[in-house]
Input
Amino acid sequence: MRWALAETDDGGVRLCPLDSSGRAAGPVVTDAGGLASAIRSRPGVDRWVWRSTAAVYPRLLAAGLRVERCYDVEAAENLLLGHEGRSGHPRSLAAAWARLHGLPVPEDPPQAAAGRGPHRAADSQPSLFETEGSPLPAGTDPLEALLAVYAGQLARAGEAEHPGRMRLLIAAESAGMLVAAEMRRAGLPWRADVHRELLDELLGERYPGGLEPQRLAELADEVSRAFAGSPGAPAGGTGRTGTGTAGLARVRPDLPAEVIRAFARDGIALSSTRAWELRRIDHPAVEPLLRYKKLYRLHTAHGWAWLQTWVRDGRFRPEYLPGGTVSGRWTTNGGGALQIPKVVRRAVVADPGWRLVVADADQMEPRVLAAISRDPGLMDVAGSEHDLYASLSDRAFAGDREQAKLALLGAVYGQTSGDGLKHLAALRRRFPAAVAYVDEAARAGEEGRLVRTWLGRTCPPAGTSDDPYDEAGLPPTEDEAPAYGSSAGARARGRFTRNFVVQGSGADWALIVLATLRQALAPLRAELVFFQHDEVIVHCPEEEVPQVREAIRASGDRAGRIAFGDTPVRFPFTLAAVDSYADAKG
Output
């Protein structure tokens, strides 16, 4: 049974049952008790249609309610706009309603400033239709608007290139929205005392007045001493940390321009202070500078200020943003949840009597390429849980696993020069359909055409502000500026679209993993507490570990069948049940 709901200005809720076409299948009723009352009194509803999960679901969770499924109208609008070549257009209910009626389309509202932040209460979300800057026109019934937009979306999904796949993608994205809210509510277990201990261990004493901690100050002095004999070095002065460095020519390692100038005085030209570039030169400042950069990142990204801001009551609760990138990968609104350094993972500790089950998908993108390209040879290689690169090397690369890995990832990421070109040729001979699939995606991108994931998520049109052609992590060289129509710009976009069809299809698969795993864990006390790209963490009582392991394994293959159909490709996970997240990583 499917119902739609919308909140009213007086705090009540208007709702009605729906038929398969998205139209009302019964009378509209009003529940003056509000959102939680409306949901609680209708336990037979298995899917709720609402404007935005982020606006509704946290308050339901705070009231102790969980819904099985939902249809997120704004998430669906975003996917459908992309499929129609209108990526980046406003996605709000008000915008979708305006498009239906040929009216001026309001811009999407900014996130409300009030009540936002890492410790915003779960029930402090704005009203469901509180849309700063883009309200529905005066006198418009929000439920009628919701129903009209929803029915229109069902019709548009039916006109997609592959209607069934698009419907599945919308359902998966909506499920992801539920998971994101539930993970934030649960929080990632975090021991603040362990975190403080490792900061004290690595960074040393904290100085008052916002000065750098002890170890950073000492490394900054080492860097300055390494440059002290530089020809033309500036006159020394009192060190900024007051650690006895008066008279040294001060070089601030946190300022790249200053570091580059210091190297230049020693006759070394650098274009940046990136670690890989520093490691190529021989200079006594390199070693302390690299150590400084590593600790500086820890101090600024996950130091004492981060701990005070983001961890409360033994939990880190980031705000996950499903589909935060155009490829469908998730991002977070602050907190750096998807970039937790290995050393900081020591602070992610299970509660007493509980365990963290950490699951990493094994060689996900090559397996996804096998499934979407339908290459018989590559599907055969990916048809077991064994190391895919080792199996590939036995068939095409004389047992050289590293060469096989470079070849396959080069095909996905567009590394088609030098050794990459030679490896790609070997790959093309053995797995022609797989290579042709990504080659065609690259060609489409170079020609300015749209490409889609297997389920229908669509890349932005060429030349738009939403076209991050280097999202694949392959920035253009200096002569490859993003000037579409030029060969350099076309190649850059081709590299992006080549990767998009694989990475995006992998993101769609991961959404279905989350949805199926959420369903499997529902009868247990176990909680999904973390997700990034190809990794999930479940926090569970120790006695539930075997069930959680089996649920994760089953979800990988089940998601593969749901997303890609009946193929022999397997999607295994490497699993570890640990007390600390750090223990699950090699």
Remarks:
- The chain has a mean pLDDT of 89.
- The radius of gyration is 26 Å.
- The first strand starts at residue 2 and ends at 7.
